[in-house]
Amino acid sequence: MNEKNELHNRSLHISGLWNEEKVDIEPKEVNIDTGKVDIQEEKVDIERMFSEKTKDFSVKTMIHIHRLFKEYGYEEVFGRSTIMELLELKASGASKLISNLVQADIIQPVSGYGKGRYKFKKQ
After folding, report:
1. Domain 46-120 belongs to what architecture?
2. 32, 60, 84, 107: which could join 101 in a potential S-S bond, CB 3.0 to 4.6 Å?
3. pTM higher than 0.70 for the full model?
4. Could you give the angle at which helices 80-87 and 59-72 cross, rounded to 10 degrees?
């Protein structure tokens, strides 16, 4: 091609094609005085619900159960990998926790989500 084009930054600018029109980003007032909404969810007393089933568990295990229940509740499905991530446990610790919770009848296996999925059992 033998073309001799200058490839300097100053000569490669595209000028005059930018839209110089300013966009209105002024926030509009939102009326929040129309009424109060109760966003407080009813809290579940997990100690009372599982008191007989968890009496032999350590304090650390109870903390893990609380965190799991807070994150997943009754309707959400979880597995070993999500427990490992949430509670920062290794695979063996998460498997042991699942085994203990299944034996204590606190969680139950769930079908339709793949192997190794569980959810809290309604008491």
Report:
1. Orthogonal Bundle (1.10)
2. 107
3. no
4. 110
